[in-house]
Structure formats: C-alpha cells, structure tokens
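User: Let's play a game. I give you a shape written as tokens, and you guess the letters that built it. Ready? Here's round one.
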C-alpha cells in the first residue's frame, strides 16, 4: 500500500470522531467556565469575611454563601474531572475508529489495500497521474499452483509465502504506486509511469517474476513458487475506462499468461476477452450437458496386426453439443477437470460404454482412459465396480488405461489403485509409454497388464531411424516382462507392415477407421457377426462418422 494513502486512511476516522464528540467538549468546557466564574464571584465575598473572622475583626461569613462556595468548589473539581474523562474517551474512540477503518480498507495478512478499497484509491491515482501527463499501468498476478502449496505445506506456510511475496513486491514498486491483495493469492498493482518510458513496466514485470521465484524459508523448509502476470494500461482504447474495468482486463491477460505456461507476463489484447468469453460458454455448456447426457462414447477399433482380427475397442468421449456440434475431448476435458466435473462426466460416459459393449461378442474388450483427477480419488475402484455391476459387464473384458505422466504425481496412490482394479479382475495398461523419464522403473514396480507405445514413435516409423530402434527396444523389453503391446497411430499400410516385422502388436489408428458412435459401431459388428443374438434395439445417433474430429485431436477419453 502507498504510504500517503495509508496516512489518509488513518486520518479519516479521527475527523469523524471529532465531529461526534465536539458537542460534549463544548458542554464540558462551558460547565468548567461557569463554575470558575461562580467561584470567583462567591469567593470574592466569602473569603474576605472568612479572613476577618479568623483575625477577630468581624463576624463569620454567611452560612449560605459558604455552602454555595463549597458546592462551587466541588462543581469545579467534578467538571474538570469530567473533562479529562471525556478527553480520554474521545482519544480511545478515535483509535478504535482508526483501527476499524484500517481493517475495512486493508488486507490484515499483508497490509495491502483490499478489494473493497483499491477501486477508490486507483481512481484518485489515475486522476492525479493524468493531471501530470502520466499514464497508469494495471498489473494482476497470482501464484501458480498455490493450492498445491497449501495442500502440501499447510495454510500457515501459505500465509507466510503471501506475506513474503507482498513484501518483495512492495520493495521494488515505484513511488506513488498501489498494491492490493484482492483475495486468496491474487494481487493487483497500479503504477503511474511516463509514456516515454513504457518499457519500464515490462522490466518491472520481469523483476517481479524473478523475485517471486526465489525460495521462501518456512519452518525450516525451502518453498519455491512462481507468478503469472497480466498487464494493461489506462491509455487502452479511449483511456476513459474506470479502474475496475482496467483491472478486469489485466485479470484476463493474467489468465492468458497461465494458459501459455505460467511464470510469465502478457499484455491485454481484445482477442483474449473473446477467448475468455468462449471458455465461459464452454464451462456453462459442460455443466448443463453432463446431466443431460450430451457426452457420449465413440469407439476406435483395436486390431491384432498379424492376423487383422478385430479384438476390441478403445472408448473415446465426445461432446454432442446441440449448438456447436461434435466437440473433441482435447477441448472439454481440461475445462471439466478445472471445474471439478471430470469424474461425473467420465463415469457417465463409461457407464454408457459398458451398456453398449454388453451386446458385443464376449471376446471383444473395451479400453477406457481415466483422468489424473480420478487417479487421486480413493473410491474410484469401488465406483468402477459399481458401474460394472449395474451394466452386468464382466470385469475381465475391461481395460483401464493410465497415462504415464500421471505416475509421477503420487506413485503410492497409483499403486493402490492398480491393485484394487486388478483384484476386481480389470486389466490395467500403461498408456503413452516412452514419453516419461521413469518408464522402466514403473514397469518394474507396478503390475501393469499391457503397455501402449506413444503414437509419436509409431507415426515416425520410416524403415530406419530412431523410431524403429525405440520400438524394437520396447518390443524386446515387453517380451522379457511378458507384457503385450498396443501401438496407436497406425495410419498407413507401410507403418502396419513395419510393425509386423518388429513384433507382435495390437494396433489402432486411421488405417482401420475413425472412431464411430455407438450405432455405427453396432452396425459394423452386426456385419461381422460379432453381436450377441437378438433384434436391433439401438436407435440411430444423430451424428455421422464424417462429423467426428480428427483422431489426433481427440486422443484422450474422459
């Protein structure tokens, strides 16, 4: 917080309390003055009489006047004492009002402005800066992955980090700037600057990023974090935007910085707001679409490469939006994870897939991907078992695919989940094998039933080169461990031919067809004689195979 602004804050309640007690001051002083005047008047008569009586030169003073004088003396003492009490009371009230004002206008943890007060302070600063011919930069930043810092180290450590970050930022802020903590780990900075030296704002942003990345010592532990910054300036568009509008623009730019990888800054651009609005519409659509059943399974064929036999399908989620058409999971899954709906979405799609696959030939398997969020759910195995029971689908035909990158978050939780799934008879595959750094260690310590080679190696096959050698090495390793292999991304005859020479694989890719909805998959199986007996009962889907997005853009399922 700017020192001048804080002085203003402290001054406001003092003037208010003075107005509230001025009438008591006048009354108290009036009583004292009246008592003194009476004391002088009565004392001027009684005291000379008293002195003459003591010296034996005259009679004593009049008793009524003497009583009035004594009463007058008591009144003076009482009035003076009352004035002192009122003065102390006024002083204490002023202090209390000043403290209440500070609590209302500032953040108690960091001493910065709070969300309520930053708007008025910013408007005053902008007016002053404009009068001097300056512009004002608005910066918004928050700490990247701060929730994880709180979860791992505790909220006390999180508070200490916020205090330290606020102190570091305050030390490098130019004179006359404002800093506010808007809530949680989100801060706003308002900085006047000379338009001829606008680059200093970017230099400041870079300095803030470097300073925030320095470790914070908390309870003997060294904790590191980073910040993402969004920037805008008062001269954008017409230059007449209110402070809250400019802060909102900086907030949008900060969101864009996070989306681009965090630990960086971005200036606001108009396209960012349109993108944010589109995201908000997607969020609303996901929240509406999950209970309405708009998220449905599509199926990609899995083929035994050497024989060409269809052996199963991988389930891929699609969003059949009534307004936007078919949307792939690369768009909606990250958003569903962020807003906490991925588990509900995934379970609804898996439940439908189990019902669809129940009509397939018993030899056909069903593979499903699960989100990293579901890996952290200690009840996921029980939820999946419940879905299997409700669909009357044998667990031996289900294969759960776990992406290799998920293994590095919490190996203990993953090991426990795999054990629970295998105890229920469910197979577990390691997906995207070869992209992580600890692949061999995970194969040695975790009881996987199958590995899937990452599509980047498969699509890179050209007869010679690194991809061939990598797949040869993986095939040899899998044979030694007794693990079958699935190769994804088989999009041409040449790739299939080379894989036949490199080992025994199950494959999937464009060569065998694009993912299809439930009805088209059922029709395909009916033609191949791979449906259980019985009449056709499924209703045609509205979506055709031609509307499905490219496979590489829809790789993940829910």
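Assistant: Ready! My guess for every position:
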């Amino acid at each position: 917080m700017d020192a001048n602004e804080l002085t203003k804050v402290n001054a406001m309640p003092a003037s208010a309390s003075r107005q509230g007690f001025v009438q008591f001051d006048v009354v108290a002083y009036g009583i004292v003055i009246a008592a003194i005047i009476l004391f002088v008047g009565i004392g001027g008569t009684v005291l000379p009489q008293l002195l003459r009586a003591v010296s034996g030169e005259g009679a004593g003073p009049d008793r009524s006047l003497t009583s009035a004088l004594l009463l007058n003396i008591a009144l003076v003492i009482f009035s003076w004492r009352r004035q002192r009490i009122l003065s102390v009371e006024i002083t204490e009230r002023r202090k209390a009002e000043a403290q209440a004002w500070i609590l209302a206008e500032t953040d108690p943890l960091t001493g910065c402005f709070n969300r309520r007060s930053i708007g008025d302070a910013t408007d005053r600063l902008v007016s002053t800066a404009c009068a001097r011919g300056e512009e004002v930069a608005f910066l918004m930043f928050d700490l990247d992955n701060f929730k994880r810092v709180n979860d791992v180290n505790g909220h006390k450590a999180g508070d200490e980090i916020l205090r330290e970050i606020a102190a570091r930022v305050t030390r490098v802020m130019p004179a006359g700037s404002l800093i506010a903590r808007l809530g949680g780990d989100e801060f706003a900075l308002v900085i006047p600057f000379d338009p001829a030296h606008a680059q200093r704002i970017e230099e400041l942003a870079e300095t803030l990023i470097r300073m925030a990345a320095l470790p914070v010592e908390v309870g003997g532990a060294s904790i590191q974090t980073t910040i993402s910054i969004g920037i805008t300036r008062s001269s954008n568009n017409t230059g007449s935007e209110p402070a809250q509008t400019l802060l909102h623009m900086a907030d949008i730019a900060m969101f864009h910085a996070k989306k681009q990888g965090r630990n960086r800054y971005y200036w606001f651009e108009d396209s960012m707001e349109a993108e944010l609005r589109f995201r908000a519409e997607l969020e609303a659509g996901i929240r509406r679409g999950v209970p309405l059943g708009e998220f449905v399974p599509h199926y990609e064929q899995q083929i035994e490469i050497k024989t060409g036999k269809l052996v199963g399908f991988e389930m891929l989620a699609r969003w059949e939006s009534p307004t936007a058409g078919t949307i792939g999971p690369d768009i909606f899954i990250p958003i569903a994870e962020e807003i906490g709906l991925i588990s509900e979405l995934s379970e609804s799609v898996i439940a439908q897939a189990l019902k669809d696959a129940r009509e397939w030939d018993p030899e056909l398997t069903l593979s499903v991907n699960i989100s990293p969020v579901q890996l952290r759910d200690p009840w996921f195995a029980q939820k999946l078992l419940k879905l299997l029971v409700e669909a009357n689908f044998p667990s031996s035909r289900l294969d759960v695919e776990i992406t290799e990158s998920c293994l590095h978050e919490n190996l203990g939780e993953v090991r426990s989940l795999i054990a629970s799934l295998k105890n229920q008879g469910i197979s577990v595959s390691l997906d995207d094998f070869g992209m992580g750094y600890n692949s061999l260690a995970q194969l040695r310590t975790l009881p996987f039933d199958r590995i899937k080679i990452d599509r980047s190696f498969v699509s890179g096959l050209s007869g010679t080169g690194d991809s061939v050698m990598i797949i040869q090495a993986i095939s040899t390793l899998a044979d030694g461990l007794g693990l079958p292999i699935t190769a994804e991304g088989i999009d041409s005859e040449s790739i299939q031919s080379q894989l036949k020479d490199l080992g025994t694989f199950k494959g999937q890719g464009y060569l065998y067809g694009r993912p299809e909805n439930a009805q088209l998959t059922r029709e395909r199986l009916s033609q191949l004689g791979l449906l259980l007996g019985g009449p056709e009962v499924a209703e045609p889907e509205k979506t055709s195979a031609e509307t499905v997005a490219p496979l590489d853009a829809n790789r993940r399922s829910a």
